[in-house]
Specification:
With about 425 residues, this protein is mainly alpha-helical. It is about 60% helix and about 0% strand.
Length: about 425
């Protein structure tokens, strides 16, 4: 018997057929428009072969995500186990630039399980609470984060899903015993990455650079935020490799900064770029000391006979770049965030690929240089929830590798500084 109120469709788009959902048969259909993907109904005139290729019709059908039992406590489970059983299609969907999310993203479409009310709750949490966790002393920057970014997101679904993922991650951080927000974050992050990859094919098309710039901010923050929200109880978490993946992500998004500077400064997000006389946040005293320590480190590296020519050049370059970004962050009139946060984001954008390769291979001197970056992270760990736990677990991993090498003295100052800052923070109630 035919169901009331239901008209069977045999001419819907291929993606809706693959997902086994009702297609409204508009051109493009509403579901494809919502998820910012190509719709086969737009390609009908080109021919069936082109349509199939545009939709990735030659790929195997995705399997539904398998969630773990709600009775299990998320605080005792690795993030990947909590959210889903990994399928090959998920792993293959996030190559290269977005590798840091490969164990986090879900195949499940966010609208299937969360619905409009849940999305409304997430966007409300962002505009009311989560945007303020970026900690800016500048009123116009705060207003841009609260109002201009969501307005741009309503034009670009990939940015909207990225904001929802960030908001859900923050809620997961605030409510560590609830698995619901982690699942939401995983679903929205997966959809955001798919849409962002499409926009990155032509970052200046239709002024999409504004949405891409905002997405780049939140995708990098979300990459950091996965650890305090989800992975901090995972004994198998590999902090050094995960941080290198975040650095690769930052470098992959840098094309937006390089090609769109003028457009961004005069576009809808100009409040994030305005030079102003707002009260700025001073650089912490320990970071001033770090410049001198880095100069000493450069001198040691240049005299190190144990390093071959290319290694020495790469390691000196990475160290000098860290000195440069700290100096520039302190001079900058941009008050979007603290100078330490600007340096945290700027260093990965400039790092040579050779240094990332050395770090991923756990080269002891590359890790010694990275230990100074941990001081930057820890300087504002109390201000930014998404940095929580990173300095400690990174330094622990670095010390384990470097302690038996001739370079162990190089990590003494960063280790002592982070320890002293932690003690001061506890005494003043900041951590």
């Amino acid at each position: 018997m035919k169901r009331l109120g239901y008209r069977k469709s045999r001419t819907g788009c291929l993606r809706c057929k693959q997902r086994r959902v009702k297609c409204d048969e508009k051109i493009p259909c509403g579901a494809c428009l919502k998820h910012a993907v190509s719709c086969s109904l737009q390609s009908t005139a080109i021919g069936p072969q082109s349509t199939q290729k545009a939709l990735g019709g030659d790929r195997p059908k995705q399997r539904r995500t398998t969630l773990v039992s709600p009775a299990r406590n998320c605080s005792n489970q690795p993030c990947g186990t909590l959210i889903k059983a990994k399928t090959p299609s998920t792993a293959n969907a996030i190559p290269g630039t977005f590798a840091c999310f490969s164990n986090f993203c879900s195949n499940e479409d966010p609208d299937k399980d969360s619905g409009c009310i849940s999305c409304a709750q997430l966007i409300h949490h962002y505009t009311a609470v989560a945007h303020r966790t970026l900690f800016t002393p500048c009123l116009h920057a705060c207003e841009a984060l609260q109002h201009a970014v969501p307005q741009e997101a309503f034009l670009y679904p990939s940015l909207l899903h990225q904001i929802l993922a960030f908001s859900a991650l923050h809620l997961a951080y605030l409510q560590p015993n609830s698995r619901r927000h982690l699942i939401q974050a995983s679903q929205h992050q997966s959809t955001a990455i798919s849409g962002t990859r499409e926009l990155l094919k032509d970052p200046l098309a239709s002024n999409s650079c504004h949405a891409l710039y905002a997405s780049s901010i939140f995708v990098i923050i979300s990459a950091f935020g996965i650890f305090p929200s989800c992975e901090k109880s995972n004994a198998m978490f590999e902090p050094i490799g995960s941080l290198v993946d975040i650095f690769v992500l930052a470098g992959g998004m840098s094309v937006i900064f390089e090609s769109s500077d003028t457009l961004l400064r005069h576009g809808p997000l100009r409040g994030l770029f305005r030079d102003c006389d707002c009260l700025s946040t001073p650089l912490k005293l320990q970071i001033h000391d770090m410049a001198t320590k880095l100069q000493t480190l450069v001198a040691l590296l240049e005299e190190a006979s144990e390093l071959d020519g290319e290694e020495k050049k790469t390691l000196v370059e990475a160290t000098v770049l860290l000195m440069d970004v700290i100096e520039e962050a302190e001079r900058s009139k941009k008050t979007l965030a603290t100078p330490e946060l600007r340096a945290v984001f700027a260093w990965p954008l400039r790092l040579p690929a050779a240094y990332l390769a050395l770090t991923r291979r756990h080269h002891p001197v590359a890790l010694a240089v990275l230990s100074y970056y941990c001081v930057l992270l820890h300087a504002r760990e109390a201000n930014y929830w998404f940095f929580e736990g990173w300095p400690r677990i990174l330094l622990q991993s670095i010390a384990t590798i470097v302690i038996d090498s001739p370079w162990k003295e190089m990590i003494q100052w960063p280790t002592d500084t982070v320890r002293n800052l932690s003690i001061e923070g506890k005494e003043t109630g900041l951590v």
